[in-house]
Write a structure and sequence with these properties.
Strand order of the largest sheet: 1-3-2
Order of helices and strands: HHEHHEEH
Oligomer: single chain
Strand content: 5-15%
Number of helices: 5
Number of strands: 3
Shape: elongated
Structural class: alpha+beta
Radius of gyration: 21 Å
Distance between the termini: 62 Å
Largest sheet: 3 strands, antiparallel
């Protein structure tokens, strides 16, 4: 089994656009054809395809051609790099806030 690594910057950059986030949310329900994914958006198909290319480059989605239809699938694995980064940040800030709380309690006791 090949273990893939995902780049946090690329994943976050791909998700920085509201259209791409909506595509990811839609694919969270299940696979969809490109034309069905594009239908809620008022943009030309080449512009929409650029969004899909960015999502695919970030490995957030993958596509499969079935006959004349291209089907898009969500790949949930890259979200683990976001989750790990957020977990580290949460722990760091909890530690800092606890230290600030301790400092303020000590300072309050001295006045």
């Amino acid at each position: 089994m090949v273990k893939r690594t995902y780049n946090l910057d690329i994943v976050l950059q791909a998700l920085s656009d509201p259209t791409r986030r909506q595509v990811v949310e839609r694919l969270g329900i299940g696979p969809s054809s490109v034309s069905d994914l594009a239908s809620p958006f008022s943009m030309a198909m080449p512009s929409f395809m650029q969004h899909l290319d960015i999502l695919e480059s970030a490995q957030l989605i993958y596509t499969e051609k079935v006959g004349r239809v291209r089907i898009c699938y969500l790949n949930p694995n890259p979200f683990s790099v976001i989750e790990s980064w957020l977990q580290v940040q949460k722990s760091l800030w909890e530690t800092r806030l606890n230290q600030l709380d301790s400092f303020l309690l000590k300072t309050k006791g001295k006045t």
